[in-house]
From TrEMBL:
GO BP, one annotated term: photosynthesis, light reaction
Coiled coil location: none
Domain PRC-barrel residues, every copy: 24-94
Taxonomic superkingdom: Bacteria
The protein, known as: PRC-barrel domain-containing protein
Pfam family membership, one: PRC
């Protein structure tokens, strides 16, 4: 009898878990595209319920004093480099702006983030043959 994997996503900050090495916790870092354009800041890391691996960055942009802020999900697969100050991603700022809308109430729903993975052109983490990126140690 085979059981379906639990594909729910959980915000790391809403669990008792932490990043193993505090220096590798990228929450609060700026996100920039490959041209150096500002995308926003990482507000939260979303982990899967089964393997407890980071699957998405919850990136916040715009707004003032927490008002009018936009939030988007970016697959961890999009990361190209990480420094002490920022996280670089492959997709452009325009591509991120056109991503499927983010609904925090639906973050645990596989169909909600499956559309985001598909939009960015990455293999879903629940697919056979998926290889987890070398997060957070990139070339």
């Amino acid at each position: 009898m085979s059981t379906e994997p639990d594909r729910r996503l959980i915000k790391l900050g809403e669990t008792d878990e932490t990043v193993a090495d505090v220096a590798e916790d990228i929450r609060g870092r700026d996100v920039r595209d490959s041209s150096g354009n500002d995308i926003g800041k990482i507000g939260e890391l979303l982990i899967d319920a089964d393997e407890r691996k980071v699957r998405f960055l919850e990136v916040e942009s715009g707004g003032f004093l927490g008002m009018g802020k936009d939030t988007t999900l970016i697959p961890v697969d999009a990361i190209t480099s990480i420094t002490e100050d920022d996280v670089r991603i492959g997709p452009s700022r325009d591509q991120v702006a056109g991503a499927p809308s983010y609904d925090p109430a639906l973050v645990a729903e596989p169909d909600h983030y499956a559309a985001t993975v598909s939009y960015y052109g990455f293999m879903p983490f629940w697919s056979v043959g998926y290889r987890y990126p070398d997060y957070p140690h990139y070339a």
